[in-house]
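# nightly structure sweep
# worker-07 picked up a monomer target from the shared queue
# config: single-sequence mode, recycle default, output format = structure tokens
# input follows
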Amino acid sequence: MMKRINLLALAMFFVSIAVTEVRAQEQSADKQLAYQKMINQRAYKITATLGIADSAKFYRVNRIIANQYTGLNDIYTQRDQQIKEVKATAADNKDAAKARLDKLTAEVQAKVDKRHALYLDSLSMLLSAEQVDKVKDGMTYNVKNVTYKAYNQMMPDLTAEQKSQILQWLIEAREHSMDAETSEKKHAWFGKYKGRINNYLSKAGIDMKKAEADWQERIKAQATPKN
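# output follows
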């Protein structure tokens, strides 16, 4: 009798494990579906700004953009898992762990760079240069244009050379930002290049703190109702 009870308990235990695994798989599938829906919506918003009249072309571009988001997510998800494995297996050897993590970082960057180039090639086959630019801006919250406009408003006396250099660096920041895995990291790339721009302008003799303070005063003055 006791043996029979033990067998029943053991069977129930394995059933509970099976049920847990099924639920985990269902939750994982639901999470994946929710993620894909979110990515498709994000891609659609970008594609909708391009003025594509041909519906087949529209959805082809939309699919390329969505696949880029998904592909980058796959790269970073795999990287995160590999980082956990490195920390778990080489935690006691800091030098070995660092070497493996450095190698992993380089490998991930190579994958991202390759995907970046293929992605832009795919878009260029279907879109004009102006439309590709819109896609890039859409993927980076239009920070390039907003920031460039802000610099010009803050310092209306910038030379043509200075404007060109600022724009060049913001375009470079956008290329990196496109591949970043989170909103924070996308903005961080622009923050890095804004630091470079500010140093460049400071070396040219521009007092950046004063320029910004004066700009804020002009904004306040414009917003103040006149009697």
